[in-house]
Specification:
The complex is a heterodimer of chains A (306) and B (494). By secondary structure, chain A is mainly alpha-helical. Chain A is built from 12 helices and no strands.
Chain lengths: 306, 494
């Protein structure tokens, strides 16, 4: 009898336990399905697409294996776009970092009117990149742009240089615009990071007679390392996908001189409907992003660990 | 009246009334003998309650269908939802929609240069069955021949679009400056010939140089749109006029021929007599400078002619257009060089993915019919330009402002001498390569080097899309006399 009761209990508990085990899965199932549908499926689909020759001008979509990747790596325009992207990441983000950190250091203490200054400094980052692009296009205008106007006042004669239409200066103009917009982001992150640093450490350093430079180099920077890595990570990833300002300021020109990887992919995929080739280029960008992310995450871990 | 006569009269009256009642049905079911617009309206009534999505270029372009759609809805009960897209998105979005099986668009506006790509993708509905069923055949003949030709409305003899925009470049010049006696004397002394509205590119350059040297910075001799994106349009016509060819018999690109290089060199030189920063000037910059009286000549699309004459300048849709300071001072010439570029233009087409093809077709037939399209090309704010013989000959249009007749004659002459932009598969990509070459040369690159690069890109595109396929498409495209390059349009003997 006892054995029968035990068996009955086991029997009735097993399905219940199973059901209980399933409940967490049921809760996360919608999320998993959505992720599968909107992330995993398109990624796998576009990977398949990158192995085909799908073009608007062709009736068929043959499988060509790595053909698109081979073409991509043998195209000078692609390498040029990659170079421009890296220049924007390295030069643009570095300057944003230096300026943002410098401003944050300057404004981290108590000062009169700090709120207004901080609010004003944050304005560019709140503006849509497309609006920033069009606004700066007017600022860089050869005939009516304030930049040329001011230079004209300084040198005492009309100055009508066409910044955006000259290969030598188009990228410079883009970098200045990009830095103007995103330095406030760095500044904000660093300002909040500096605000939570323990003041006692600096007081102790003062008592020990540490110079301002020594405090910055040996205390502030090491303590800020995790925050710096996160800021660089966010901005770096964003800069690798840099598109909007290029689109509005130069359209990748003159010629293809300011084309970034994102802009190149947009041209190939959405302007010329080279869908297979565009997908291959997107995957290459994805690999770069993944490498960059992995490197910075490692740096982040070591920063947090130290 | 005798009883017998009364009976006969009653029967005749009844027959007449019956005929009157059934006439619209007859329009709808057989070839249209009357007005194509009326035939479209009557036939469309069976689709009352339907909504059709119509793609139109955003901004001012869309004001025309936004004005006409309520009238169409009132007449037929069919609602038209106007979807506004940026010009280059008009190529990409409907194609994306078709490739993904969306069916979001019913009627779409397409530039002739995009037609082959769309037809190859199976994205367009052939219109011939609808035309046969609903259109008065005489109205097809009313399209100016250049606009109803192969490669424009038709691809390989099949009609895929109804032409709706007579876009062609003409030269606008300041009559007051050209007719000024001092200017005439000074010009003749310097250049050795009479100052006159230019017919050749050299004359245009000389006049531009003369006015710039004399009046800058208050006024410059010439302004031409140089902004990346559509800069190539100003290359195509002169390239053809000078005898340039896009490809040789083996389908190798020849845009970097001596003719091409010399033309680009001249175009770079032209920038020096244009306002500073012209390399970044788009449509709006040219328009503003012209309307403000800051340039002596511009080469651009037809609407500027209407606006500079002050035609309909009180329309609220034109509030953004600078007030014209050149009213009564404007003369018109076809774009110098012999082959004005037929730049852009639009066909109204039906998407193959549409669920409302017939209703959408009837809408575009109504919009492009002679009487309705005349109203549309005369809307002060419209960007649709005359394209039917009846438009050019319309007494109403010809009296719209004092120089309107001269304007219409110039548009017709320029259109009939025009040169279409390349319209084979991959056209956007080919033209973008030329665009890159132009902007690179404007930025200082050697014109030959820039065009060599463009030609290499062209060969790569051709190779990729299949040399034989492209050759066939190009040969087909060249069947249209206005696609064939050369100093003059060679029309086939009647």
């Amino acid at each position: 009898m006892a054995a029968t009761t035990e068996a009955f209990t086991l029997k009735s508990e097993t399905p219940r336990r199973k059901r209980r085990d399933l409940i967490p899965w049921m809760f996360v199932a919608p999320c998993i399905i959505i992720i599968l549908l909107v992330t995993i499926f398109p990624t796998v689909y576009s990977l398949g697409l990158s192995l085909t020759k799908w073009e608007i001008g062709l009736q068929e979509r043959p499988f060509i294996g790595l053909g698109n990747y081979i073409e991509l790596f043998s195209t000078a325009r692609f390498w040029h776009a990659l170079l421009i992207t890296l220049l924007v990441v390295v030069i643009g983000v570095s300057i944003e970092f230096l300026l943002g950190f410098g401003l944050a250091q300057t404004l981290s203490g108590q000062m009169k009117g700090k709120r207004i200054v901080v609010a004003a400094l944050l304005l560019p980052v709140m503006v849509m990149p497309v609006v920033v692009g069009y606004t700066w296009r007017l600022l860089w205008d050869a005939q009516y742009g304030p930049i040329n106007q001011i230079i004209g006042w300084i040198i005492g004669q009309p100055f009508t240089y066409t910044w955006l239409a000259k290969t030598e200066t188009a990228l410079l103009a883009i970098l200045v615009t990009e830095i103007w917009q995103w330095t406030p982001f760095m500044f904000l992150v660093f300002l909040s990071g500096l605000a939570v640093l323990d003041p006692e450490i600096f007081e102790a350093a003062d008592i020990d007679g540490a110079s301002g430079w020594a405090k910055l180099w040996y205390i502030t920077l090491p303590l800020m390392r995790p925050i710096i890595v996160v800021a660089l990570l966010i901005r770096g990833l964003d800069a690798l996908k840099f598109f909007d300002i290029i689109f509005t300021l130069t359209g990748g020109g003159p010629g293809n001189s300011t084309e970034t990887l994102s802009f190149y992919i947009y041209q190939m995929g959405y302007q010329f409907f080279r869908l297979g080739y565009g997908a291959a280029a997107s995957f290459v960008l994805l690999v770069f992003l993944a490498m960059f992310l992995t490197y910075l995450l490692k740096a982040f871990k070591s920063a947090v660990g130290s | 009246m005798s009883t017998r006569m009364f009976k006969i009269f009653s029967v005749l009256l009844a027959v007449t009334m019956l005929l009157g009642l059934t006439m619209p049905v007859a329009y709808a079911q057989g070839p249209c003998q009357g007005s194509s617009s009326q035939c479209a309206v009557e036939a469309a009534k069976q689709f009352a309650g339907t909504t059709i999505n119509y793609v139109r270029e955003a901004g001012l372009q869309a004001q025309d269908p936004l004005t006409m759609a309520p009238i169409w809805e009132e007449l037929t009960g069919i609602k038209v939802n106007v979807i506004e897209l940026a010009y280059l998105d008009m190529y990409t979005k409907p194609l994306q929609d078709h490739l993904t099986g969306g069916g979001a668009y019913d009627a779409i506006d397409l530039s002739p240069m995009w037609m082959q790509d769309y037809v190859n993708a199976g994205a367009l509905e052939p219109l011939d069955p609808y035309i046969e069923k609903y259109m008065n055949p005489a109205d097809m003949e009313d399209f100016l021949p250049v606009y109803r030709s192969e490669g424009v409305m038709k691809i390989k003899g099949v009609t895929y679009g109804l032409y709706d925009d007579g876009d062609v470049f003409i030269l606008y010049y300041r009559k007051d400056l050209f007719e000024d006696e001092t200017n005439k004397a000074e010009f003749k002394a310097k250049y050795g010939y009479e100052l006159a509205p230019p017919e050749t590119e050299q004359q245009m350059y000389d006049a531009a140089e003369f006015f710039t040297n004399k009046y800058a910075p208050e006024l410059y001799g010439l302004a031409i749109q140089r902004l990346e994106g559509q800069a190539y349009s100003w290359f195509v016509g002169p390239f053809s006029g000078r005898g340039g060819q896009f490809f040789d018999e083996n389908m190798k690109a020849t845009i970097n021929s001596e003719i091409g290089v010399q033309l680009l060199t001249d175009m770079v030189k032209q920038n020096k007599v244009m306002p500073p920063g012209v390399e970044k000037w788009g449509f709006m910059e040219v328009l503003s400078a012209w309307m403000d009286g800051k340039v002596a000549m511009i080469v651009t699309w037809p609407p500027i002619g209407r606006w500079s004459a002050g035609y309909g300048d009180t329309a609220k849709q034109l509030a953004w257009v600078p007030a014209s300071k050149v009213v009564g001072k404007v003369g018109y010439m076809p774009q110098p060089g012999g082959r004005p570029t037929l730049a852009g233009g639009f066909n109204m087409c039906i998407s193959a993915s549409s669920n409302n093809k017939e209703a959408a077709y009837l809408f575009i037939q109504w919009m492009t019919s002679p009487d309705i399209s005349l109203q549309r090309v005369m809307l002060p704010f419209a960007l649709r330009d005359p394209y039917r013989l009846s438009h050019f000959n319309s007494p109403l249009y010809r009296s719209a402002w004092p120089e309107a007749g001269e304007y219409l004659d110039t548009l017709k002459k320029a259109g009939m001498a025009g040169q279409y932009e390349l319209g084979i598969p991959g056209a956007r990509e080919y033209m973008e390569a030329v665009d890159n070459a132009l902007t690179a040369a404007y930025a200082g690159k050697d014109p030959k080097e820039a065009l060599d690069e463009a030609a290499a890109k062209w060969d790569a595109i051709t190779e990729r899309l299949g040399v034989e396929n492209q050759k066939k498409a190009y040969e087909q495209w060249l069947k249209n006399p206005w696609n064939r390059l050369g100093p003059k349009v060679e029309l086939p003997a009647e």
